[in-house]
Specification:
It is a single chain. This protein is of the alpha+beta class. Helix 3 packs across helix 4. It is rod-shaped. The chain has helices spanning about 1-50, 55-70, 80-95, 125-135, and strands at about 95-100, 115-120, 140-150, 160-170. The chain has 2 domains: about 1-70; about 75-170, Ribosomal protein S6/Translation elongation factor EF1B (Alpha-Beta Plaits), CATH 3.30.70.60. It is about 55% helix and about 20% strand.
Length: about 170
């Protein structure tokens, strides 16, 4: 009985090992490989989420921004002549007066951009129409901000004027 018990014990161990080996080959091996692949893909995703490590993306973004800025590019050497005359004609068609073209201030410039300020006078609706037309005029630059002020004279009923200060950003 002792030898037969040992044979059954060894046979049970061998059969158990064979079943574990078959289960590993059929199910566990594929699951472990899938888990390892998942871990590798998560690591790659974490690396690609950091945009600063992608110089190609940065170059594409910069070229797209340069193309966009070229749409609004104005020749700043001729800004005081050609562009102002174009802006003045837009203002005249909208019955708005180009009230002032202040001198350039060096504080309003950067390495790539220049801020130009223009003052317009008129009633509110005419100023808004002129603003819309100037925003659509690509050669004038991008309108960065608009400030509306009221100017009252001696007679508040007759001398009430609205002044619109427009700040245009242009490339150097």
């Amino acid at each position: 009985m002792g030898t037969q018990y040992l044979k059954k014990k060894y046979l049970f161990i061998v059969v158990t090992m064979a079943v574990v080996l078959i289960c590993y080959q059929l199910a566990f091996k594929k699951t472990i490989e899938a888990w390892q692949l998942n871990q590798q893909l998560k690591a790659l995703l974490a690396q690609s989420a950091d945009v600063s490590n992608q110089p190609g993306y940065t170059e594409r973004k910069n070229s797209n921004l340069d193309r966009l800025l070229d749409l609004y590019k104005a020749d700043t050497l001729n800004f005081r002549s050609n562009t102002i005359s174009k802006i003045a004609s837009v203002a005249e068609t909208e019955q708005v007066k180009l009230a002032g073209v202040p001198n350039e201030e060096p504080a309003d410039t950067s390495q790539r951009f220049r801020i130009q300020k223009l003052d317009f006078e008129g009633d509110y609706f005419s100023l808004m129409k002129a603003f819309q037309r100037l925003a659509q005029t690509k050669e004038a630059g991008i309108i960065r901000s608009a400030v509306f002020k009221t100017k009252r004279g001696t007679d508040p009923e007759k001398d009430r004027k609205i002044i619109m200060e427009l700040y245009f950003e242009t490339l150097k």
